[in-house]
Amino acid sequence: MTAGERRAAGRPGRTGRWAAWAFLAPVVVYLAVFYAYPLYRNVELSLHDYTVRSFVQGDAPFTGTANYAEVAGDATFGPALWHTVVFTLVSLVFQFTIGLALAVFFAQNFPLSATLRALFLVPWLLPLIVSASTWSWMLNSDSGIVNAALAVFGVDPVRWLTSPDWSLWSVIIANVWIGVPFNLVVLYSGLQAIDPAVHEAAALDGAVGWRRFRTITFPLLRPVSAITLLLGLVYTLKVFDIIWIMTKGGPSGSSTTFATWSYRLGFGNLLPEFGRGAAVGNLLIVAALVFGLIYIRAQRRQALA
Question: Which of 55, 101, 269, 300 has a CA-to-CA distance to 94 between 20 and 30 Å?
Answer without folding.
Answer: 300
